[in-house]
Amino acid sequence: MSIVKPTEPEIIREGDIAPGWDWDKRIPAPGRMSVDFEQRVDFNRLHRYRVARSKQALEASGLGAVLCFDNNNIRYLTSTVIGEWARDKIARYALFTGNSDPYLWDFGSAAKHHQLYQGLIEPEHFKAGMLGLRGSVAKEAGLFKNAAKEIKALLVQEGVADMPLGIDVCEKPMLEALEAEGLEVRDCQQVMLEARQIKSMDEVVLLNMAATMVDGAYHQLAENLKPGKRENESVADANKFLYDNGSDDVEAINAVSGERGAPHPHNFTDRMYRPGDQAFFDIIHSFMGYRTCYYRTLNVGSASQAQQDAYKQAREWIDAAIDLSALA
């Protein structure tokens, strides 16, 4: 991840956080309330920045538009989310040409909710729509064909129908339906990742807030880690802590201890902690769409000399790597 400093004129123009930001002071991790006496995350500014970054990446790509089914890209473009349910359905999709607000097709009730409450995109750009739900709705139902025709009509309206259309992920029948409309389809996942790579200060603060929640979860895990407790209980405790404190998606919590740690299985069981165990945790969660994935290894009771020696060696390697990256 790279951070844009506000001396770069295009970022100031696109609405980055205060141009006078002191980059030597600590990045804040404010609470979730709004207050009138501190400058916190400005979600309107965040939306403008992300759309501007997407437009910049699109213009450099040679594509006429991007059609996104990846929920992370959809949220980046449209500032909408309908929860963890949508993670693996490939049913919502957003179209962005750079010539107008992004378009979003969502379940009918969600689309209506966006029209009433989202407030950042023209209401008529939120449309009811659904596709195959990963094969649950057969191609013969005609949803892919109808969607492709509607998308083609919008591309014509926006003046980019003769240019390639980028797609991040989609079901094969959707790809076939778009090509049947005479559209040249290319990959756009890298285009969207290019847009998302450079973070505004609002995004950095949201990442910091997400990490702060995990700091609290790890503190609670450390306090409760004792012989007799089970890995799945630790996972449940961390889930509750994160959702209580504002997480919008706890994607995964790995809890691996004792003999289960070699090799690392990337999951958890009902194994009971024992004195002297090492307990490894990995917390992957999202706050306002900004995610964490970092780990802690804790000891159940005291640490052995071998464990202390290994920690010291690992810390030396990490510090040396940080020093090398600072010189690069």
The overall pLDDT, averaged over residues, is 90
CATH architecture of the largest domain: 3-Layer(aba) Sandwich
Order of helices and strands: EHHEHEEHEHEHEHEHHEEEEH
Task: Indicate the proportion of strand residues.
Answer: 15-25%
The strand line-up of the biggest sheet is 5-4-3-2-6-7
Q: Which stretches are poorly predicted, pLDDT < 50 over at least 5 residues? A: 1-19
Characterization of this structure:
The protein has 328 residues and is α/β, with parallel strands linked by helices. It folds into two domains: 42-198, Creatine Amidinohydrolase, Chain A, domain 1 (3-Layer(aba) Sandwich), CATH 3.40.350; 208-327, Creatinase/methionine aminopeptidase superfamily (Creatine Amidinohydrolase, Alpha-Beta Complex). It has ten helices and twelve strands. It has helices at residues 9-13, 43-59, 71-78, 108-117, 143-157, 172-180, 189-197, 201-224, 231-244, 305-327, and strands at 2-3, 65-68, 93-96, 103-106, 126-128, 165-167, 185-187, 198-199, 249-257, 278-287, 290-291, 294-299. The strands form three sheets. A six-stranded mixed sheet has the order 5-4-3-2-6-7, with helices on both faces. A hairpin with a 6-residue loop joins strand 3 (93-96) and strand 4. The protein is elongated and about 70 Å long. It starts with a strand and ends with a helix.
